[in-house]
Amino acid sequence: LQSRISTAGSMASIIMACIWTVCAPASAAARTIYVAEPGRGGHVAPFANWVDAATNIQAAIDEAKDSDTVLISNGTYYLEEQLLVSAYKTNIAIRGLTGAPEDVLIDGNNYAGKPVTNRCMIVYGNQIRLDALTFTNGRAVGSVWDGYGGALLTQNSGKTSLVENCRFVGNIAINGGGVGLTYGTVTLRDCVVCDNVATNFGGGVYVYHQVNPGILMDGGVIEGNRAGDKGGGVYVVGFESCAVDRYQFADTIISCKEAVDSGGGAYCSYAGAFSNAVFDGNAATNKGGGLYFYY
Questions:
Q1: Any idea what DSSP says for residue 262?
Q2: Contact 263, 285 (CB under 8 A)
């Protein structure tokens, strides 16, 4: 009798396992979500091919789920409000079609006489990758964090992001004319940050972090940016690591004439390590035409 009960129990377990195997939902495969300029796509969700491609980038980002790729066709995408990658998004890539950042322009629409003047993108999500995109004409001039990162602001505490092979050109903010990197672990790799303006700190890039390993800037060019106070190219403040490797700082200038102006190429407060970096043609009105460290 005991043997029969055990056998029956085993068979019941096997049957339940088979039922669970059949009924359990399969994990979703990674998808490609397509984006084309208005007039070139049908804008039919889930934007699974070029014929049905989304005609605005935000709709594609909203559609994306874990491991998906938002693939953006060549063209210029004018924004009416900043693109948002929410905190609920994980492991998503947003990239240009050809791999050449100059082929996909995300334009913040900051032109004279335009009612819309906004940052290009803000990222809260985890494991977000931006690749082969150009961000231009963004503007961040609000209070507190609304004034950081004219083109891009990452604000993802305890999370990671990779920004690779991107260009940030002709943006403006109070801090971080081109890019604001705050909290989280962010890598800015092989990017060009040029001709951006910050009225306060960090003409090209503003870095604020309180976590390890913090921010890694790995390879690229920071050129022709302007700041009204400190850090014509880059301004770094924080209490953990910020590593800068293989970057070239060229022709970045502190434009204000006040005596507090320091760090024409880069200004680091309490944290920062530079290796294989080139500082050329930078200027400051007070201290550190190329690089200034404050501890």
A1: B
A2: no
Mean per-residue pLDDT for 5-29?
A: 47
pTM: 0.85
Give the integer Cα–Cα distance in Å for 228 and 290: 16
Structure tokens at 64: 């994306």
Query: Which phi and psi (to 5°) does residue 128 adopt?
Result: -95, 135
> CA of 125: how far to CAs of 22, 85, 186, 197, 218, in Å?
33, 6, 12, 26, 21
- What are the CA-CA distances from residue 115 to residues 14, 30, 99, 106, 118 (Å)? 65, 38, 32, 17, 10
Residue 54 has which token pair?
Answer: 């989304």
Q: Could you give the 3-state DSSP secondary structure of residue 18?
A: helix
Cβ-based neighbours of 67, under 8 Å, separated by 6 or more: 30, 91, 92
Q: Give tens-digit pLDDT for 147-201.
A: 999 999 998 766 788 999 999 999 999 999 999 988 778 888 999 999 999 999 9
Q: Which amino acid is at 259?
A: A
Peptide bond into 115 cis (omega under 30): no
Token representation of residue 160: 């990671």
Whole-angstrom Cα Rg for the chain: 23
Closest by CA to 228, choosing from 277, 185, 264, is: 264
DSSP three-state, residue 134: strand
Q: What is the pLDDT of residue 158?
A: 67
